[in-house]
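User: Could you write out the 3D structure of this protein bound to adenosine monophosphate? I've included everything you need below.
Assistant: Certainly. Input first, then the structure.
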Amino acid sequence: MTFEELGLSAKVLQAVEATGYTTPTPIQAQAIPFALAGRDVLGIAQTGTGKTAAFTLPMLSRLEQGRARARMPRTLILEPTRELAAQVEESFIRYGVNHKLNVALLIGGVSFADQEAKITRGADVLIATPGRLLDFAERGKLLLTGIEILVIDEADRMLDMGFIPDIERICKLVPFTRQTLFFSATMPPEITRLTETFLHNPARVEVARAATTASTIAQSLVASHGGADKRQTLRRLIREAADFKNAIIFCNRKRDVALLHKSLQKHGFSAGALHGDMDQRARMASLDAFKSGEVALIVCSDVAARGLDIPDVSHVFNFDVPTHAEDYVHRIGRTGRAGKSGVAISIVTSGDEKHLADIERLISRKIDYLEGAALTELPEGGESARDGDGGRRRRGERREDAKAEPKSRRRERREEAEPRAAKSPENRAPEARPRDSSRDSSSPASGASGRAPARPAPREDYREPPRDRRRGREEDDAPVVGMGDHVPMFLLRPVRLKSKVDADEATSVG
Ligand code: AMP
């Protein structure tokens, strides 16, 4: 099968040739002819399969006819994170070099004014995260009634992040007659229901199950005591890694990303970080530094790194074993791409056994311990005992072998890709006011009809996930005993005694 046989336009074929691709990937070969024919497509495919081109190439071909009108984009692509949205924009720029199309990006963390200017000019392609898109639509600054093609990408990730109610609202704002291209790595019941409601007689195309990990990735485990021992284990693994080029290091929590990043820098490693509390510019700068080889290590959280296409990653380290088995598949899928070999090593501490068992069940294989020493055979004191770092937990350091995903971690997962909107003044709409709950905010017509639209305050981009999905996670919450690791300052203050008698009494009591 060649690209010529798929029915793409001459301009698109030229751009594909310039990129150097000779053969369509299976998802491209299957999805492109249906997309070009105007059919709805349900694509079950992970990132790394070439699915971005599977929707951008036919969209470019179809966009050659017609023109965009002010505030009325012609096509809409929904992505769960800003990085993915920016990545899709890059694809449009690459494959669309021979087209004069206006591409607009609507994501949080970027000035409203610039984005508004682009939309006002008229966008052929609008790439957006759901929250920011609804913000614009609700303010009447954007009309979705001209959408000819709607792409919903990474739908299962949208579900994890609580975006499904937003997706449902957006689907109701776009015309019934649009074409929908829908992609998801997995098909949980909530996603199936969504496709049944919003797709019309879709062509179903499917490549490789999400639970499969590439055979080109050498997976292994290393046991650790947790705490400082874990960081030392990681440093040793990096130093000893064979054929090391660069590595993505995953932590389960944002604050641990920051902590580990600092620690690695302190120990002289060239490392960057990527997590949702960083502003968009810092996130893109970190990513670019890693992609260009300026830094060899990048410490990430799941949400920020999900789906990123970084070619040539030699190693993935799971500093924390992920609490959701699918995250393991996505994390290690950052290496061993396009037939290259890769190494994925997970650091395991006591308390990780349950999650590890879930992962092994999902990928239908056992992962071996690298150095033969399983968790149960770990020597007393671990790395710290060996090189005298003490292995004691430092002040402010949390217990890293906590069994489960605490509530705060679940909130982090939602907030991460798009932290609360409007943290900085330029990111805030100048006219932002509290939401007017009395109006029907889902109606775009309020803006079009000439009535002054009520302007809601910028919204958070995250919604609570549906109750049934939350329940499972809440059961995992680790109980906190007493004050946990935290000792309030007032308890550490020295006691001043008034007289010798008092002092004697205090000594005899204490
Ligand atoms: P995606 O799944 O869209 O994130 O794409 C994964 C990677 O595959 C990206 O680096 C693309 O540039 C690359 N890619 C997409 N289509 C092809 C193709 N037909 N041949 C070779 N590489 C491709």
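Residues 21, 23-25, 28, 47-53, 309, 311 surround adenosine monophosphate (CB under 6 Å).
User: Perfect, thank you.
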